[in-house]
Write a structure and sequence with these properties.
By secondary structure, the chain is α/β, with parallel strands linked by helices. The chain contains eight helices and four strands. It has a four-stranded parallel sheet, with helices on both faces. Strand 1, helix 1 and strand 2 form a beta-alpha-beta unit. The longest helix is centred in the middle third of the chain and has 35 residues. It is elongated.
């Protein structure tokens, strides 16, 4: 019977981190240096040169073959994206037909037990990884929502970051250089909204946001009867402020 080939894989997130400890652990397990592969890259992606050379892709086979064993020091060295890690675990154990052993977690070892037990272990690990990924996603979403809710607001009700003092969400639209001239022409109904938007070089939604901000910063009671939808601008959202507007 052909002897099982054993490969080791390690990963560090940056070039400043040392891979010596992981590499030594793999050597202590009995893996030859020529059979150890490693990457210095973030664990969020599996698009890593040495990992792909070892494991391959559905389009191109790697060095790892059916019956081989892949050894890693810890699960997060394989990847930090639990959803993708689950997919990779499934690909290695099912598609390639290789085994995986995680040194710091004895339960994560597909070489233990019979074929039925191995299949059960693979299914269990994939379900656990999927569960952890979903829990992490929900926790991150909750933290983001809670953080957003407690943010202070400015006089216009916009959320402001406590740390940077900047507005959250999409960048604030700035007044174009020709704003005052175009705005006055629009107020006096010399030009339509469509023409004003074209002259300013902005979108319709940006135009009305700037109008709202400009009129909040420069209140003028005499403008109250100005129509909100100039001729040529068929926007149902922007109705006349008063029935008597021209």
């Amino acid at each position: 019977m052909e002897k099982k080939r054993v490969f080791g894989y390690f990963r560090v997130s940056t070039a400043h981190q040392l891979e010596d400890r992981q590499e030594q652990q793999l050597k202590d397990y009995g893996i030859e240096s020529r059979c150890i592969f490693g990457d210095k890259i973030s664990g969020k992606t599996f698009d890593r040169p040495e990992y792909r050379r070892l494991v391959g892709t559905p389009e191109k086979a790697g060095i790892l073959k059916e019956g081989d064993l892949l050894v890693i020091c810890s699960l997060d060295r394989l990847g930090r994206n639990y959803t993708e890690t689950g997919k990779q675990w499934d690909y290695i154990t099912r598609e390639i037909g290789a085994d995986i052993k995680v040194l710091d977690m004895e339960i994560l070892d597909t070489t233990a037990g019979s074929g039925l037990e191995r299949q059960f272990m693979c299914d269990l690990i994939i379900k656990i990884l999927s569960y952890v990924a979903e829990k992490e996603r929900l926790a991150n979403h909750k933290r983001q929502s809670e953080g957003y809710e407690v943010m202070p607001t400015d006089e216009y009700g916009r959320k402001v970051s406590k740390r940077t003092g900047r507005h959250c969400g999409r960048p604030e639209v700035q007044f174009p250089k020709n704003w005052n001239e175009v705005y006055q022409s629009w107020v006096l109904e010399e030009i339509s909204g469509v023409e004003a938007i074209k002259l300013l070089g902005i979108t319709k939604s940006a135009f009305y946001r700037l109008v709202k901000r400009h009129e909040a910063e420069n209140p003028n009671p005499d403008r109250k009867n100005r129509r909100e939808t100039p001729k040529g601008c068929k926007d149902k959202k922007h109705k006349k402020r008063t029935k008597g507007a021209n």
